[in-house]
């Protein structure tokens, strides 16, 4: 039952999620790694190119030395005219002049210190203008020149790459989800088929088989399942045939015994009429003989009835039945008026009164025989059912016997055998099933036993194949599931 | 939790390891020996100023076995090709000669212009045009081709000798290797100029960086500037440099060159004596 609590597709979803996670994480790692490598290479290439450019232009700027105002202006104009933006300064500590005010970052102290030390150094501005400043001293002087390069296009390219990688990653995740879902469905489809097949077998469809579609593990599994189902079908078929033979034998025996037992009962009736005339020493054996004949007749009748139930050669004749009145009739007819107390609501059911009487009479007889005078029959409507509980205060039944109590000829306790045939509860159970009712028992040793008969409050009529024709317009029906 | 921390550490190492530094040193800045003083130069005679009713033509002489342009202003005529070749055979002026210009053609090199057809101008030269070796003859042909193709109607030149074609029509492309790295089209030798001097030409130099400076009569640098040609380092590009100066008149020299990245020296210097006006 636990397997049925698992929501359908849960494992498929988990497999899909796992697939997406693996693909997504792998793609993300690759994308981030690729982006960082490209970014590193591009930024480093930009610096190297700018450095090479700056080295040459420091040499070119040398011809403007010494940097007085005019030469500085010529220097800046030349650089600006050649498409380069520069900052020029006469030396450490002096201010720098920009060739273009739109590209005039202030070199940091660290950069100026390195330049003053004779190094070619660089720095990137921290703002959003993406400027790369490469500076050095003009050869043969302390004058400083800083070449400013815009890296906006480079960062735009990197942003474009990042966007493309992000979009690619999303596509990979979506594709992975689709592929993962398809793979999971294909992988788990044999499992689903096996689950459905197992459920069908459990519901009695023993001819259910799995298709063997591949030579992989699932194929071997399907073959094993089919072998198991075939073996189970054969075994259950054997058991069913054996049970059918047993029941047919019982029916045949009961049928063959019926005529001689009937004759025996008739002859015993004659003997009962002359019982007082028998010698005293023969009277007791005659009385025992009469009692055994009666028991034999009851046993044969029970066997015939249960055989009919097994063969489903029974009919239901439903009509409104006053449950309380029926119980009172049973109690009065059998002389249990002082022993059985009827309680509960008065309920009218649409059922077969003869079958119901057979069940209730059996339950009450058992209670009276083993429970003494403290027997109660309680009628209690509960939802879709009307429950009749027959309780006694007898010795109770040990728990290990309860599960077998409705089996045929089951002897739970010698104290409960009495004069019965051993078929009473089995017949009651079959009749209850025929009525669409449930019959179960609770018992506490030393306290008492309660038999519960759960009758459907409203049973839908259903035609029973092979049933006897209904007299007086009553339709032969059996309850659903009977 | 431990796995998460390890993963986070790996990611941090990856990110920090790959992140580009925002600043740093790139090694020592270039240091060069101080540049030497510019060579002295004797100013040439200046050219006549441009007058109305005249035509200015471009002549391609040679300097150091490479082509070098100059200009002539003559009375207007429709026979521009003939005028150009006549001036070409007349040779450089004394000032140009002092500046190093020569020509492979001479008055003893008769020519006949046979006509222009489909952009191809056919010129017949006598046998003297082809003497002196193939290199000398090729240099002469280059002078003629560059001189004649200055006109929009001429794109190629066919040379004939004794009535027979000396080869297929040729254009400037066939003689591009005879151009020096720096070709100064303006100013020309002896031109009167005013501030700012505009130096134009073509160049195929390192990093396309073309430099120019103005030296006074004493060889003192009174102005300098540089620019980036439209192409460089393997291809020839046009350049235009504005060279402003303050000091007065007299003769001066415009030097156009490129700077060596190795030692900072001036390379392929083209000196053009001018007169400051």
Question: Can you walk through the features of this model?
Answer:
The complex is a heterodimer of chains A (482) and B (277). The model of chain A is unreliable at 460-482 (pLDDT under 50). In chain A, 55% of the residues lie in helices and 15% in strands. In chain A, α2 packs antiparallel against α5 (152-202) and α6 (217-273) runs antiparallel to α7. In chain A, the strands form three sheets. Chain A has a five-stranded antiparallel sheet with strand order 2-1-5-4-3, sandwiched between helices. Chain A is of the alpha+beta class. In chain A, a hairpin with a 3-residue loop joins β11 and β12 (448-456). Chain B has helices at residues 2-18, 80-90, 94-98, 134-148, and strands at 23-28, 54-63, 66-75, 111-117, 120-125, 156-161, 164-165, 182-186, 191-193, 197-203, 209-215, 221-228, 237-243, 250-259, 266-276. In chain B, strands 9-15-14-11-12 form a five-stranded mixed sheet, with no helix packed on it. Chain B has a four-stranded mixed sheet with strand order 4-5-6-7. In chain B, strands 8-10-13 form a three-stranded antiparallel sheet, with no helix packed on it. In chain B, β5 (120-125), α4 (134-148) and β6 form a beta-alpha-beta unit. The radius of gyration of chain B is 26 Å and the shape is globular. Mean pLDDT of chain B is 85; it is low at 33-48. Chain A binds chain B through residues 32-33, 36-37, 39-40, 43-44, 47, 51, 53, 55-60, 62-64, 70-71, 74, 77-78, 81-84, 108, 110-111, 114-115, 118-124, 126, 134, 136-137, 139-140, and chain B through 14-15, 18-20, 22-35, 206-207, 209, 211, 213, 221, 223-228, 241-242, 244, 246, 259-261, 264.
């Amino acid at each position: 039952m636990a397997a049925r609590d698992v929501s359908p597709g849960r494992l498929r979803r988990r497999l899909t999620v796992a697939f997406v996670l693996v693909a997504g994480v792998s793609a993300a790692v690759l994308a981030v790694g690729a982006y960082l490598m490209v970014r590193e290479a591009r930024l480093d290439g930009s610096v190297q190119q700018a450095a090479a450019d700056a080295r040459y232009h420091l040499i070119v700027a040398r011809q403007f030395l010494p940097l007085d105002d005019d030469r500085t202006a010529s220097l800046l104009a030349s650089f600006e005219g050649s498409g380069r933006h520069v900052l020029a300064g006469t030396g450490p500590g002096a201010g720098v002049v920009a060739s273009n005010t739109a590209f005039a970052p202030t070199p940091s102290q660290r950069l100026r210190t390195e330049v003053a030390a004779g190094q070619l150094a660089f720095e990137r501005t921290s703002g959003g203008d993406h400027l790369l400043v490469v500076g050095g001293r003009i050869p043969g002087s302390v004058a400083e020149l800083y070449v400013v390069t815009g890296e906006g296009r480079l960062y735009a390219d990197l942003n474009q790459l990042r966007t493309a990688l992000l979009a690619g990653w999303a596509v990979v995740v979506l594709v992975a989800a689709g592929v993962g879902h398809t793979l999971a469905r294909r992988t788990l489809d044999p499992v689903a088929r096996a689950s459905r097949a197992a459920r069908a077998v459990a519901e009695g469809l023993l001819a259910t088989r799995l298709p063997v579609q591949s030579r992989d593990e699932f194929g071997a599994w399907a073959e094993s399942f089919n072998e198991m189902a075939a073996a189970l079908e054969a075994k259950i078929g054997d058991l069913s045939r054996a049970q059918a033979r047993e029941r047919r034998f019982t029916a045949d025996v009961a049928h063959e015994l019926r005529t001689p037992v009937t004759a025996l009962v008739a002859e015993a009736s004659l003997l009962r009429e002359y019982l007082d005339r028998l010698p005293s020493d023969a009277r007791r054996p005659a009385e025992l003989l009469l009692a055994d004949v009666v028991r034999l007749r009851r046993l044969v009748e029970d066997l015939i009835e249960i055989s009919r139930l097994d063969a489903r050669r029974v009919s239901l004749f439903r009509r409104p039945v006053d449950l309380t009145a029926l119980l009172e009739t049973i109690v009065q007819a059998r002389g249990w008026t002082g022993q059985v107390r009827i309680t509960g609501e008065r309920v009218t059911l649409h059922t077969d009164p003869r079958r119901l009487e057979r069940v209730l009479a059996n339950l009450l007889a058992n209670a009276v025989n083993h429970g003494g005078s403290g027997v109660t029959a309680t009628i209690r409507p509960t939802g879709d059912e009307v429950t009749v509980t027959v309780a006694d205060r007898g010795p109770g039944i040990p728990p290990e016997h309860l599960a077998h109590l409705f089996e045929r000829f089951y002897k739970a306790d010698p104290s409960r055998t009495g004069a019965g045939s051993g078929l009473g509860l089995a017949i009651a159970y079959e009749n209850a099933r025929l009525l669409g009712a449930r019959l179960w028992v609770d018992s506490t040793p030393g306290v008492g036993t309660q038999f519960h008969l759960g009758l459907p409050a409203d049973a839908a009529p259903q035609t029973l194949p092979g049933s006897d024709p209904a007299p007086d317009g009553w339709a032969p029906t059996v309850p659903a599931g009977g | 939790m431990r796995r998460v921390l390890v993963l986070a550490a790996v990611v941090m190492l990856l990110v920090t390891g790959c992140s580009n530094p925002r600043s740093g040193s790139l090694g020592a800045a270039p240091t060069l020996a101080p540049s030497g003083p510019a060579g002295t130069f004797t100013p040439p005679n200046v050219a006549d100023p441009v007058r109305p009713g005249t035509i200015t033509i471009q002549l391609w002489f040679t300097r150091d076995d490479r082509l070098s342009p100059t200009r002539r202003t003559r009375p207007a005529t429709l026979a521009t090709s003939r005028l150009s070749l006549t001036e070409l055979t007349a040779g450089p002026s004394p000032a140009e000669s002092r500046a190093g210009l020569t020509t492979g053609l001479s008055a003893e090199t008769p020519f006949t212009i046979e006509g222009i057809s489909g952009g191809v101008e056919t010129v017949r030269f006598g046998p003297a045009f082809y003497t002196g070796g193939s290199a000398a003859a090729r240099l002469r042909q280059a002078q003629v081709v560059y001189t004649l193709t200055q006109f929009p109607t001429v794109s190629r030149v066919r040379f004939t000798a004794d009535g027979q074609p000396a080869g297929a029509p040729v254009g400037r492309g066939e003689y591009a290797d005879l151009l020096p790295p720096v070709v100064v089209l303006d100013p020309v030798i002896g031109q009167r100029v005013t501030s700012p001097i505009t130096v134009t030409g073509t160049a195929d130099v390192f990093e396309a960086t073309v430099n120019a400076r103005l030296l006074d009569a004493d060889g003192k640098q009174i102005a300098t500037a540089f620019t980036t040609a439209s192409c460089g380092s393997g291809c020839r590009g046009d350049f235009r440099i504005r060279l402003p100066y303050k000091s007065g008149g007299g003769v001066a020299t415009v030097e156009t060159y490129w700077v060596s990245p190795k030692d900072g020296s001036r390379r392929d210097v083209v000196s053009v004596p001018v007169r400051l006006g």
